[in-house]
C-alpha cells in the first residue's frame, strides 16, 4: 500500500522534473530563435542540483538576506566536448529575475568543473532571491570557436538575453562563433536547506 505522503512526494518530484525539462527546452528555443541556425546540442549536468532539481545550499551566496547563508561555491558542472571549440562560456541566469547574471566564466581546458571552482564574486555570485517564491537558475554552456575579446553580460544585474547570445556569437567581426549549446536548470527558494 502506497502511503499518501510518498505519493505526494513522487508527484511533486515529477512536476519539478518536467518543469526543469521545459525550462531547458525553452532556453534552447530562445537560442534557436536568436541564432536562426543550427548548432550542436550539448548535454549539461550538475551534481550540485539534486534529484528534485534543487540547487545545493553550498552554492548559495554568503549574503545576510539568505537564511541559511551558503558558501558561494559555483555548482559542479559537466558538459559535452564540441569539435572545433577552443573554449566554453558558462552563464548562470536567474530566469525569474529578468536574466540576473550569477555566473560568467570562460573555460579553455576542461569539460568538468568541481563544485567551488569559482568563488570570487567577479565570476560567481550564488543565488540570494527574496522570500517570495522559487527562482529558476539556468546554467548555460556555449561551445565557442573563439574566445570573446570583452566580458559579455553584466554580473549581478539584469541582462538582455538576446544581446548576450548575439555577442557570444559575433566575435572578431564574424558571426557563427557559437558551435554548441546546452543547459541545466536548478531551483532555489529563500530558506532552502538542500544537501
From TrEMBL:
<dbReference type="InterPro" id="IPR008914">
    <property type="entry name" value="PEBP"/>
</dbReference>
<dbReference type="Pfam" id="PF01161">
    <property type="entry name" value="PBP"/>
</dbReference>
<dbReference type="InterPro" id="IPR036610">
    <property type="entry name" value="PEBP-like_sf"/>
</dbReference>
<protein>
    <submittedName>
        <fullName>PEBP family protein</fullName>
    </submittedName>
</protein>
